[in-house]
TrEMBL record:
SUPFAM superfamilies: S-adenosyl-L-methionine-dependent methyltransferases (SSF53335). PANTHER family: RNA M5U METHYLTRANSFERASE, TRNA (URACIL(54)-C(5))-METHYLTRANSFERASE. Belongs to the class I-like SAM-binding methyltransferase superfamily. RNA M5U methyltransferase family. This is Uncharacterized protein. The keyword Membrane does not apply. PROSITE patterns: SAM_MT_RNA_M5U (PS51687). Keywords: Methyltransferase, S-adenosyl-L-methionine, Transferase. InterPro entries: SAM-dependent_MTases_sf (IPR029063), U5_MeTrfase_fam (IPR010280). Gene3D superfamilies: 2.40.50.1070, Vaccinia Virus protein VP39. S-adenosyl-L-methionine binds at residue 181.
Length: 194
């Protein structure tokens, strides 16, 4: 492939294999949809807006998995309106959860179609009551009919709008839309190799 692209003089080193093959991801985002009249989180069927509900996540950190299912259950309990991609209406579109490898703190970002919902404060209260390692809840406003997950505007609802992580003594503030290597253990390995 490198020869085809005119890069045949470049030497590629071996892949650095991660020690963790499961439950390593410290950031995930999933669509929230109604499936058979029940609020679910999961993946999309190929080339559709139909959601396939998931009951476990092989690559996701187990603390994040608990938060994802907990938030889903709270959405069900409150009967929060969830996004309909065909009509581009209603409230919660996606849930993003980020976890600090350093201190296990998390932020939850609710990607929403509108900025306010009468159940937002109750939802936030139930989340923080149930999950004491959640450091912040952020609303990301995305009113557009698009396949882009995040909109331009983040609105802090409760607590911090970032998590803090450290790699080799260097601190990073990780916001909802920033990229940060989701495999924290592997990131340390890569930084040490450099």
């Amino acid at each position: 492939m490198l020869t085809k692209e005119g890069l045949d003089g470049i030497e590629v080193e071996d892949v650095i294999v991660s020690s963790l093959q499961k439950h390593y991801r410290n950031e995930v985002v999933f669509p929230v949809r109604k499936v058979n009249e029940q609020i679910e989180i999961g993946f999309y069927e190929p080339r559709t807006t139909n959601s396939i509900p998931l009951n476990n996540f092989v690559t996701t950190n187990s603390d994040i998995e608990k938060v994802l299912f907990g938030v889903r259950d709270i959405l069900r309990e409150l009967d929060v309106s969830v996004y309909d991609p065909d009509t581009n209406t209603v409230f919660v579109r996606d849930i993003d959860v980020r976890r600090s490898e350093t201190n296990d703190g998390m932020i939850i970002t609710l990607v929403t179609h509108n900025k306010d919902d009468v159940k937002l404060l109750e939802l936030s209260g139930l989340i923080t009551e149930k999950f004491h390692n959640v450091n912040g809840i952020v609303l990301n406003f995305n009113p557009h009919k698009t396949n882009e997950i995040f909109g331009k505007e983040n609105i802090p609802v409760w607590g911090n709008d970032f998590i803090e992580d450290k790699i080799n003594g260097v601190s990073f503030e990780i916001s909802p839309k920033s990229f940060f290597q989701p495999n924290g253990g592997q990131l340390k390995t890569i930084v040490e190799k450099l």
